[in-house]
Amino acid sequence: MLLIRFLIISICILYILRSLVRIFLPMLFQGLVNKAQQQQNAQQSQHSQKRPTGAIKVDYMPPAQKGAIPDSEGEFVDYEEVK
Asked: Which helix (DSSP H) or strand (DSSP E) does residue 24 occupy?
């Protein structure tokens, strides 16, 4: 008798939880999707306002080296042709 009562209560609880998940889970995911879309739209609007179409933006330029070798000079490696 105790086993039957436990099984009936367990089945009822699982049925109720399944119904609640079917109702609330889509609402939760829809809210998350809406937030992500709003953030993406905000980023796109900020990005499009900063620079006009076709403009080039350089994020980093390395500092010029003082002892750099000019392009006309370079390493020369002696070699012998092996036959």
From this structure: helix 2-50
Give residue 61's pLDDT: 84
User: How far apart, in Å, are the Cα atoms of 76 and each of 20, 35, 64, 82?
Assistant: 77, 61, 24, 18
What DSSP string describes 34-77? HHHHHHHHHHHHHHHHHS-TT-------PPPPTTPPPTT-----
**Contact by Cβ (8 Å): 51, 57:** yes
User: For residues 18 and 21, what is the distance between their CA atoms, to the nearest angstrom?
Assistant: 5
Nearest to 32 by CA among 40, 43, 23: 40
> pTM of the full predicted structure?
0.40
